[in-house]
Structure formats: C-alpha cells, structure tokens
Design brief:
By secondary structure, the chain is of the alpha/beta class. Helix 6 crosses helix 7 and helix 9 packs across helix 11. The protein starts with a helix and ends in a 50-residue tail after the last helix.
Length: 524
C-alpha cells in the first residue's frame, strides 16, 4: 500500500433565499424582450481563456515580462501605464451620471426582502429581473446599502450565500449609472475564483458594456496586459500575477478607487499579506476597501486596520458557522482503512462528490486509485485539481465535474475557496484540513443556494484534538456516522453516537475499533 496515501495527517441565523446562480443562467431576454446572441468577449479575454485548453505555459508561477516593461499598447497608440490611468480617470469624469430612481427608505432595523428595496439603479434592477434574481440573500440585503454609501466594509457570511454579488452589484451600479470615478480592483486567492468572479460580473454587466481584465498566473502575460487597452472598469487578479506586473511597471493602479479582498482571511494570512501590502501601497489611499469571507479570525481583523478606515461590519452568522442544511458526520478510521471506507461510501450512489486530500501527491493517489477500480465499483471517473496541475488541466477538471463528465473531483484546499459548483451532493474530507477554519470552506461546497448536502470527515484515532478544534471553530459537535466502527482513545473526551449535523454531545462512546475489517491489499 502506498505510504503517501495512507500516511498520517498533521494536523443569529439568517435564512438564505434561493437566487439563481449567475454562472449557470440560460440565455435570457434583453431589456427589449429579445433573446440576443451571446456577445463576443474581447479578444484579449478570449486569448487568456484559450490557454485553458492549451499546453502548459513555460512558467507556472509569475509573469514573463513582455518586451517593453514600461508601456502598454493602446488602441490609439502606445501609452505608458501612468498615461493610461490618467486617460481612464479623465474619461470617467466626462460621463453624464444617470439620475437614479428614488427608493423609499426602509424603517430602522428593517432588511430588504426584494432587490427593488435596495438603492440600486433601474438599469441594474432590470438586469437582475431579466436574469431571474428577485430576492437578495441576507448578506446582499445588509451589505449592499453600506457599500453604496462608500463606506469600508467587513462582510461575513456562510459560503454559498451570494457574497460575490454583495460587492459586485454596487460596483456594477456605479458603472451602469456612469458615476464611477475610477476602476475597481478585486483580489482573490486562486485562479479559478478569479475567472468565476469575472464571469459572474460580466454575465450581468454586459448589458451596459462592462469592460474587465483578468490577471492570473499560469496563462501568458501579454494577452492579459493587452486587456488594459480597453480601459477596463474592473480588474480581477490574483496577488502573485498582479505583483509581477507592478514590479515590471506594466500596470498602474492609480485609477483604482475601490478594492475588494474576496476570501479576505486567506488573502491576509501569512502567505498573502506581504503581497497585499505591496499592491495596496500603489493604490490611492482615498479609496473604498471591502473585505468578504466566511471566516474572519480576530488576528486577521486586527490586520485589516492597516487597509481600512472605520469599516462597518455586516455579520450574517458568527464567523465560521456552517450552513444548517449540511448533514455532517464523522468516521474514526485507521489511515490504512480509508481507501476501503471511501470505496464503500461511493458505492451508495451519490452522483456529485468532492473529496479533499491534504497534499497534492495524496490527491493524485486518491484519484488514480478511484480510476483504477472496476467500472461497477467506480460508478464514474474521478478528476483531480491542485497546484501541480496546469491552469488548463485544472479548468478541464472543474468543467468536467460541473458537466457531470466526472462524478468525483479530488482536490486540495485550492478548491475550498469560492469554487461554485451547483449540485454537489457529498463532500468527503479524506484528510482533515490543517486549519480548523478551512473545514467551513470545504464543506461549504455543498448545500449552496439553499440546497441540502452531506459532509463526511475521516479522522484517525489519534486526531481527536484536531476534531475538537474543528468543533470549537464551528460551534457544534460533529456527530459520529451511524455505521462508524472506530473510536478515539480513552484519554479523549466523550463523543456522540450517530446522528445529524446538529447532534448534541453525550457521554456515550462508540464500540468497535479502527474502522473494522476493511484493510485489504490495494494498488495505488
């Protein structure tokens, strides 16, 4: 048996309404009642997206500099990034603002129950209506009015509750009404999330000619830089690629007046904080800064004081809260018995399964193991997504999982942040996450937009402290599965028996040991 696959690992509720997913909309009628052909994307954006099906770029990380590092070719001739930024601001100042429709103010403490109760323009409301959006989610209803005032904001809500539109709609509104004085910069931790956010905003903003640019690693630099020719209203970027462009004087951020940090806790952790500081040092201090996430540890909140001015806080749930419609269960199982337990669970027929492994190598081994099973046991093939895969391979795996070509997607925590795949029935933590807060993001891939789902976690007998930390983070115990056969050592605290996701604690202990008689000789 492969040691890498079976080795020890280390380590007031708001009801959510059910808006349609912006990424899975059918073609809808335009504002005149006609169904238009899908507008062609800008050539530069198409070039960036084309890399998804192309061979891997020579450099997976970082941007290879273009031949000239101090100018970007513009539609009316060469301009330096500084000149391009000044031209963008000048063009915005020449726009004639649209007169907004007056919205009757809500009573003090009242929360909007329809988008037309929010201070959004008629153009944006019409687009929302055409795309089937009627009722804002709690984070949207409470955050949008704050963002529209220009205040800085910390927004905390469960995964899958519409945080993208909570910051996206105010940005789109100022573009639609020609009241934007600068461009928006949206920073995200992963390439997949960058593409998802851009697509969600473009699907709504194309009605008023939204212009976007996407800066991500793993794709050629020149097509991404060429997107600046169109004077984009919104830049969506990962910190690494944007820092490369800034270091080479290829992008100027002085026209940015709104910054969004999506998945803000990850953006400000030990790995990303220095990059964020470098980026924000080149953005005017007179800006609006918005932070959104499902978890927001106190140490990260303290760090945000460097970047925000008197931010308001909108917290729909206590930070780290999991959705009520996720059934959570725990299996206590020896490392060597995990593959057989996984096989047994998959045989029960869940049709869309996301499996999390601790490392890239283990994700690869789990995927290979599942693909090596006979068809009658595999019941559908598996794909993998992690940082050893090229951008094209990762996108192909994710698209195949969305379309149903792959029944199982095996991932590291790269997929736990913001990847929105509708209809995931089951999330399996083959390995527990290294950080307790990541548990919330992992299981939040199921039960999105009001649906229900199941999350199962495998814990070795010596991982009872890790389980305790997760339960402390989410504020509830994780009940043992009804067919669990393992137990924690006597030194650990008592646990519940089988039950649903909100089961209480008890003094009972499960009987049996170590995952039962599942250990068999396997090829990985």
């Amino acid at each position: 048996m492969n040691s890498e696959l079976t080795g020890a690992t280390t380590g007031s509720s708001s009801r959510v309404s059910k808006p349609k997913d912006a990424l899975s909309q059918p073609k809808t009628a335009d504002l005149n009642g006609e169904v238009p052909a899908k507008p062609k994307r800008k050539k530069a954006v198409a070039a960036t997206l084309a890399v998804l099906n192309s061979p891997p770029a020579p450099q997976e990380q970082g941007a290879a500099p273009v031949e000239s590092s101090d100018w970007v070719e513009q539609s009316d001739g060469p301009r330096s990034p500084k000149e391009a930024a000044r031209a963008f601001v000048a063009a915005q100042s020449e726009n004639t603002p649209e007169v907004k429709t007056e919205v009757a103010p809500l009573a003090e403490g009242e929360v909007a129950t329809a988008f037309n109760q929010l201070p959004l323009s008629k153009r944006v409301l019409d687009v929302l209506d055409e795309n089937g959006f009627q009722t804002p989610t709690p984070i949207q209803a409470q955050a949008i009015p704050v963002v529209m005032t220009g205040s800085d904001l910390i927004g905390i809500a469960q995964t899958g509750t519409g945080k993208t539109l909570a910051f996206g709609l105010p940005i789109l509104d100022r573009i639609a009404t020609k009241t934007a004085k600068g461009r928006a910069l949206i920073l995200v931790p992963t390439r997949e999330l960058a593409l998802q956010v851009e697509e969600a905003l473009w699907n709504l903003g194309r009605a008023f000619r939204l212009r976007t640019a996407v800066f991500i690693g793993g794709a050629p630099a020149r097509p991404q830089l060429s997107q600046m020719r169109g004077n984009p209203d919104i830049i969506v970027a990962t910190p690494g690629r944007l820092n490369d462009f800034l270091a080479n004087n290829q992008v100027d951020l002085r026209a940015v007046d709104c910054v969004v940090l999506d998945e803000a806790d990850r953006m400000l952790d030990m790995g990303f904080a220095p990059q964020i500081r470098r980026i924000l040092s080149q953005v005017p201090t007179d800006r609006q800064t918005l932070l959104f996430s499902a978890t927001m540890p106190d140490e990260i909140v303290n760090l945000t004081r460097e970047f925000q001015r008197d931010p308001q806080r909108v917290e729909i749930e206590r930070a780290g809260t999991t959705a009520e419609n996720i059934t959570q269960n725990l299996y206590i199982v020896e490392q060597d018995d995990k593959p057989a337990l996984l096989e047994e669970i998959l045989s029960k027929g869940a049709q869309s399964v996301l499996i999390f492994a601790r490392t890239r190598s283990r994700a690869n081994k789990v995927s290979r193991y599942l693909n090596g099973l006979p068809d009658e046991k595999a019941q559908g093939r598996a794909a993998e997504i992690h940082s050893d895969r090229t951008l094209g391979q990762r996108r192909q795996a994710l698209d195949g999982f969305k379309s149903g070509r792959y029944r199982v997607l095996v991932a590291t925590d790269i997929a736990a942040r913001g990847i929105d795949v509708t209809g995931i029935e089951l999330v399996i933590n083959f390995d527990l996450p290294d950080a307790a807060d990541d548990y919330v993001h992992r299981i939040g891939r199921t039960a999105r937009a009001g649906r229900s789902g199941t999350a199962l976690s495998f814990a070795a007998p010596d991982q009872w402290r890790d389980v305790r930390d997760i339960e402390k983070s989410v504020g509830n115990p994780i009940p043992l599965a009804e067919d669990n056969r393992g137990e924690f050592p006597p030194a650990s605290r008592p646990r519940t028996g089988g039950g649903a996701s909100r089961g209480g604690r008890s003094n009972s202990r499960p009987r049996g040991g170590g995952g039962g008689n599942r250990s068999r000789d396997r090829r990985y």
